[in-house]
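ping. complex inputs:
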Amino acid sequence: MSNSLDAYLILSGLLFAIGTFGFLARRNAISMLMSIELMLNAVNLAIVAFGLFGPHADSTAQGAVFALMVMAVAAAEATVGLSIVIAIYRNKKTPLVDEYDSMRQ
Amino acid sequence: MRAKLPQIILALIIISVVLGIATLMLIALKQDWQDALLWVLAAVLIGSALLVVTMRDIIRCGLAMIVCFLALAGIYTLMGVPLLGAAQVIVYIGAISVLILFAIMLTQTKDAPSRLVFQTQAGAASIAAVVVAIVIALAVSATDWGEIPRRTRLGTDVMSRILFEQFVFPFEIVSVLLLAAVIGGVFLAKREPGGPS
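pong. complex structure:
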């Protein structure tokens, strides 16, 4: 099983689906960011698996380097996203996204 | 406590089923230990991801997310890319999870009792620590460390050559992106003097 691309891709798809559910269903903004992290991790797993079973000799390393880039972008995303959540929390006093309705006219 | 008991029993049942499947694969079906370990790690990954999106207490969601990242680091190592597993632990568990936990604590309004140094489950925690230490000691003494180069599919030297030859430009772009994210995060989270506290 550990030598088939399908196993890793199914695992990655499951993780991505769980992250999608969390992003759509949770009320807390930080929970939504955590679900985004789960989805990024699922994509990373898929990238590494594709690299592992890629055609060239270098594709494993290319997939791993790509995953490293995704990790760096995820770190930047988490920084900006969490500071936005904290900035909104300072004004609204709540982390629940369905109470952020001040942009509605 | 009475409401928590079925959850614990359910978790124990799930863990024993997964471990049973793993031992069955290992012993009865004569498969590689790598497959069995992948089963266990995949079960931990999916189970903790489900806990992240379903649990009520958001601090526990963050802790379950750390377990999820750790299982994924184990899967990377099992795939033969140990450097990526190390990066997963450093970046996700060391940086992003801590950031998320701090944000949770900043946006949490409940007051916690601060008189107790230890939580109520300090006994269980010490037992768990001793068990972990014994398991690590057994694993270290039972492992043939010469097997590592044969299990590794991507060495650090190959990966760094690819990173600094083919991917130099994206690498530099990512450094600029991280700098911008740091400045943006500080700017957004900073309190203005005289503004709302």
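The first helix of chain A runs from residue 5 to 25.
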